[in-house]
Amino acid sequence: MPFPLPFIPKLSYKTGGRKFGAPRASGRRHAGCDLIAPAGTEIFAVADGIVTEPITIFYNNNVKALVIQHSGFVARYCEIRDAAPGIKRGSQVRAGQVVAYVGQMFHMAMLHFEVYAGAMHGPLTVRANKPFQRRGDLIDPTTLLDRFASRVLQSHEPIEPIASAGAVL
To answer: Which CATH number does the domain housing residue 74 bear?
Structure first.
């Protein structure tokens, strides 16, 4: 399974406001891991799957998300600019296929990556479900991302750590 970006971000997705569970001013908790990358960076499917939600508005009326049902889990790829050509509801995707491009919210460009066990149905965002305001089968994506990153590092492929300007949280 590939990492969702073509590089491992310089700024760790395991620290600060980028990590899963990080507190937010509103009292909610961060429901994913933020992978800092320049706007327009390709986003890869982390496993084979089927697009279950095409590009939808995720936040602030301009930040978009794409949901893919992978074997054994659901991933929501958030804060994207656009889907890749041909990606729509029902599209079958292969691990490593470009599915979208990193977007920018305010001054920061990133992929916000959420993972669900797939044990429940219905909307992924559930405002009343505190503290994450997400569906009850939300899981911490850190271990999964670490596994993907480890495979990239073991492959000895060149990795260019890139961080967008102003990305320190």
So the answer is: 2.70.70.10
Strand partners, 165: none
- List the beta strands (DSSP E) in 2-134: 33-36, 42-44, 49-59, 63-70, 73-83, 92-93, 98-105, 108-116
Reduce the DSSP state of residue 16 to 3 states and report it.
helix
Residue 100 token pair: 């979208």
Strand, coil or helix: what is 149?
A: helix
In sequence order, the β-bridge partners of residue 53 are 67
Residue 88 DSSP symbol:
-
Residue-number span of the structural domain to which 47 is assigned: 16-154
Q: How many domains does the chain have?
A: 1
Q: Which ranges of the chain does DSSP label H, i.e. alpha helix? A: 142-154
Domain-embedded: residue 5? no
From first to last of the 169 residues of the chain, give the pLDDT tens digit: 789 999 999 999 999 999 999 999 889 999 999 999 999 999 999 999 999 987 776 665 556 889 999 999 999 999 999 999 999 999 999 999 999 999 987 778 999 999 999 999 999 999 999 999 999 999 999 999 999 998 777 665 544 433 333 333 2
Nearest Cα neighbor of 45 from 19, 75, 10, 80 is 75
Please report whether residue 111 resides in a domain.
Answer: yes
pTM: 0.87
